[in-house]
Amino acid sequence: MRILTARQRGATLMIALMLLSLMLLLGAATTSLLLLEERAARNHREHVQARLAAQAALEDACDDIRHRRRIEPEQFSAALQCRSDAAGAGLCLGQQERAGWEPAQLHGAQAISATYGQFTGRRFRSVTGMAVPRYLIERLPPRSGKEAIKTAADEATPTLYRLSAVGYGRHGAIVALQALVQLPAPADSAAASCPLRAWRPLYLPTQE
């Protein structure tokens, strides 16, 4: 039976300590990666929640402007682009090239936007930590700058509306979307669907 010398025992101990340190480093790295993956998955889930809430707000805004309320230019003063009264919450006059509202009017403590279901009667099934989504509706003028004239063959003059909605997820997740709607809807659009002509993500500046 071979007996290890003191030098050999010392070398064996060093190798064992190095292997143990390597295993600890690998374990720490694996744990860190798992935590990062879990955090990324949670952030993605919260972002999806906020996006779905914003999409629901767009649908609610579309239902509002199709069946509940109308935006008429004479309802607004020359200096006011968005109504601040309870009956006109979320109604604005816009321009083709720019929005007729400020970010603080859509989202924040001083928001004058309409909340989901406020005028349609729908109920938003939120979970703990999620705020109710909000929206603004802008009536856009014709590109010619003049109101179109109704003809005897037309039931109503098509009007373009810009819908802006913000949805919230848990832990502060926020997603804003914007869409264009033409009403009355084109004849070839589905009667039960919102006649969206275009949509895009909307950037909201950070609220201080």
Q: What is the end-to-end distance?
A: 76 Å
Report the sheet with the most strands, covering strand number, pairing sense and barrel closure: 6 strands, mixed
Rg of Cα set: 28 Å
Q: Give the overall shape, derived from the CA principal axes.
A: rod-shaped
Order of helices and strands: HEHEEEEE
Helix content: 25-40%
Instruction: Output the number of helix runs.
Output: 2
* Structural class estimated from helices and strands: alpha+beta
Mean pLDDT across every amino acid position: 82
Strand tally = 6
Number of self-contained structural domains: 1
Strand content: 15-25%
Low-confidence stretches: 145-155
Textual characterization of the structure:
By secondary structure, this protein is α+β, with helices and mostly antiparallel strands. The chain contains two helices and six strands, in the order H-E-H-E-E-E-E-E. Strands 1, 2, 3, 4, 5 and 6 form a six-stranded mixed beta sheet that branches. It has one domain. It is rod-shaped, with a radius of gyration of 28 Å. 32% of the residues lie in helices and 19% in strands. A hairpin with a 5-residue loop joins strand 4 (159-168) and strand 5 (174-183).
